[in-house]
Specification:
This protein has 342 residues and is an alpha/beta fold. Helix content is 39%, strand content 18%. The longest helix has 22 residues. β1, α1 and β2 form a beta-alpha-beta unit. It has a 7-stranded parallel β-sheet with strand order 3-2-1-4-5-6-11, sandwiched between helices. The chain has a domain of 216 residues: NAD(P)-binding Rossmann-like Domain (Rossmann fold), CATH 3.40.50.720. It is globular and about 55 Å long. The structure holds nicotinamide-adenine-dinucleotide. The site of nicotinamide-adenine-dinucleotide (NAD) has 28 residues, from α1, α5, β5 and β7.
């Protein structure tokens, strides 16, 4: 297939590009490099593999998008491009709605104009907010009440896609879509070529590895009095390669005009303390931590019920051992202590 990957120079998008190339697809990346890395694309074939092409451009700008859509007749769009920091979205909501919601709107307009019929959308478990009692593990029918502008841009995106697909159905031009609501994505590709390089970094696993590398003094634990087994927040950590498996399955299995939402998480929760302990075992570094107050908007517990994605897409995670997952990230971080600039 010809696949447009927006945000393909970012952490998750670059792993998708690597996998799609490996599966024999032709991949076109559109990314403005605000948080992505040309070097990530070079590591997996930009300049050497003629099935990989790249345009540096904005998903919010029709000119850049039209340039991309004119390159190839795309069979599918994987839309990763977005701003993805919850805290930043509170301070800069307009910037987030522009990148995440206007960006998606422009992509859908191009899908209409160029008659592209499939889309896989990066949604998020943050669309669930703090699920009501009795709804953990979270299934796809859990009420969605996001508690941050970031989460709301993702939920708005889901509705935008649903409404667009309905209009295409009525027009006799069926549009298929999958919303993949990711839980906490972590790990790096097992061949060691791709990593996670964000500035600033806000995700727990890379922060721990930066402490192990001596780039940070300590990790802050936000809240130790949650109603969880050890008082710290519990999350579902899914390996990036398993997440990409879900994208490929969704792309291959989606049928004309059908749409669905799928949670992507392994179905097991780990506390912040458990993740820290695992990183200490894997890196063999002390990783000092500091216990602070709760952070506004953090749910105590959030992990997935993977039943639907198992049943409908046949997905199951290959990486379920926490130490092994963190070891894939440590391998890249220790080989690239300054990220892609190493
Ligand atoms: N990392 C996670 O745990 C997680 C969890 C849930 C959802 N997601 C979603 O997955 C997707 C990828 O996340 P990631 O962690 O790889 O983030 P990332 O920041 O590494 O990747 C996003 C990419 O999009 C690009 N981009 C941003 N705005 C753009 C714009 N206006 N035009 C063109 N390109 C633009 C960035 O340069 C970057 O390469 C995002 O949509 C994010 O919201 C991530």
């Amino acid at each position: 297939m010809n696949v447009l990957v927006t945000g393909g120079a970012g952490y998750i998008g670059s792993h998708a590009v690597q996998r799609l190339l490996r599966d024999g697809h032709t991949v076109f990346v559109l990314d403005n490099l605000v948080r992505g890395h040309r070097k990530a694309l070079r590591a997996i074939g930009l300049g050497t593999n003629d099935r990989l092409r790249f345009i540096e451009g904005e998903v919010t700008k029709p000119t850049a998008i039209t340039r991309a859509f004119r390159q190839l007749p795309f069979d599918c769009v994987m839309h990763f491009a977005a701003l993805a920091y919850v805290g930043e979205s509170v301070d800069q909501p307009l910037r987030y709605y522009d990148a995440n919601t206007t960006g998606l709107l422009r992509i859908l307009q191009a899908c209409e104009k160029f008659n592209v019929r499939r889309l896989v959308f990066s949604s998020s478990c943050s669309t669930y907010g703090d699920p009501p009692e009795g709804r953990i593990p979270v299934d796809e029918d859990c009420p969605q009440h996001p508690v941050s502008p970031y989460g709301r841009t993702k939920l708005a995106g889901e509705w935008l896609i649903r409404d667009f697909a309905e209009s295409r159905r009525r027009a006799g031009k069926p549009f298929a879509y999958a919303f993949l609501r990711y839980f906490n994505v972590c790990g790096c590709d097992t061949t060691g070529l791709l990593g996670e390089d964000h500035e600033p970094e806000t995700h727990l696993v890379p922060i721990l590895l930066e402490v192990a590398l001596g780039k940070r003094e300590r990790v802050d634990i936000h809240g130790t009095d949650y109603p969880t087994p050890d008082g710290t927040c519990v999350r579902d950590y899914v390996h990036v390669e398993d997440l990409i498996d879900a994208h490929v399955l969704a792309m291959e299995k989606m049928r004309d005009g059908e749409g669905g939402a799928y949670n992507v998480g392994i179905g097991k929760g780990y506390s912040v303390r458990q993740i820290i302990e695992s990183a200490r075992r894997v890196t063999k570094h002390a990783i000092p931590s500091h216990e602070g107050p709760r952070r506004a908007g953090d749910a105590a517990m959030l992990y997935n019920n993977p039943e639907k994605i198992r049943r409908e897409l046949g997905w199951s995670p290959k990486h379920t051992d926490l130490d092994e997952i963190i070891a894939t990230a440590w391998r890249w971080f220790s080989a690239n202590p300054n990220g892609y600039e190493s």
